[in-house]
């Protein structure tokens, strides 16, 4: 009987079987929308069902179609000129307006649409990789550096801590200055920034921007190069463009911290891994993979764990492909080139796992080693886990900033959430089609199964575990890494649809991507933390000159203060705390209104845009308090610069 079942499964196509199970799973998950309005719970069952049904329909087409239509060569060249003209207009807007305004975002969305549409519809004779890659890279630079150089200070929260660490290293001229910090054993980002400051003779800020900041817009080249090993030129360019426009990719291009550098090294590891498993087995590629994986471990803990997940997926793929059940004669429409013989990755996995454990055992963190702290934290989370425990409201996890919104969900808050997550959901849809495509036995290679395994594991971490309240793996940091896998495997799925379905089907899907994806990605809160498109729904994580001047001026008097903390909104208080300017705490709220404390900082932004204060349930609430509510006339005004006022209660230090 077992042999009969095996025989039936052996004759069945894995991709069709997986698509059928996906439809069943989508139907089973659909009722969860009645338990929670969280965006992923509402949308993912629909995406899963539609994607699987579309693939099943495409699987019935055994022949090939004519693929995509093409534009006239003259029109392609005209669009190229329009893209560069639009990019120049974006630069002018940023300079004149002094920020990435809504108009800047709108123009960026139009340019992205032209760029993506041009790649998909250009005739083969006009597919000039140098021109299209130049458009992608210039687009990346304009979007990122328009943010970096219009914001007076740094963008983000953690960057203030990391630049403080770099300053400590520069002052002490030794790594021992951060011996009690968890980056003592992973100092590559801080050493690189400190060295750049010395060698370039610039301020720390400019040195950071002209070292790590210059490199980050180039990461789409690594995605393009990886995809080029698997698919023809058109689709590799599409993967690079999709990645360049990703909100989470933009995020780590303007919030320059070890995650950014870790992402760069991770993508280099991914490229080397695909070369090893698909294009070659040269010792040079193994050596480069060991080099870049070591660099990841010495840069960022979360990045090294993500890299380990991908390597484990590659090792699992190696084991699976030893069985005839998963292999068949190759399909000529599968890939551009490459073999299907599995490559032994056991030694590489063992080396990286050992180095990670060794490094984390030496890393100080919260009075213990990083390894022990993470394990203890994970155990506590496992015991406190509960179904839908980590779900609240209609927000998504990709753009979580650590502050919860108000209880009532307004139309604007829902619109903000859907705009923020729409691009990611489109990528998930593309990745679903791609994963189903490569599950076909005739397309089974170690590379494709590595991608499928890594995508499933990473989606489980970023979407599954948070549902039960487990966020020990810092899921918000995984998205930019996941985007690369989804973009590469997604274009493989698009290519399959273009060759196996009618133009009406694939045309609608690609038109949706071309029109929607660039626009929602550039307006997403995650990619616009310096200047949110929805300022009343998402906090601005950059600061004006007056807001930074208040920190510098009042913080310089800290030595004369005798104890106490400064109370203000989130996220403004994090800058005071992380720059060691002054001990800061969130200003508490009672009955929906702020309660002035000993020393309180008010800024005009609190009354105009999203700023957060903890209420009686210790939940951060978005309020718009007036100046008199934060600093009543009965308090003493001890500092004011037009935008920021610092007041103290009578008798306070």
TrEMBL record:
The keyword Nuclease does not apply. The keyword Magnesium does not apply. The lineage of its organism: Archaea, Methanobacteriati, Methanobacteriota, Stenosarchaea group, Halobacteria. The chain crosses the membrane at residues 12-32, 38-57, 78-96, 102-121, 133-155, 183-200, 207-227, 252-274, 286-317, 343-362, 374-392, 422-439, 451-474, 480-498, 505-523. Keywords: Membrane, Transmembrane, Transmembrane helix. It comes from the Archaea. This is Uncharacterized protein.
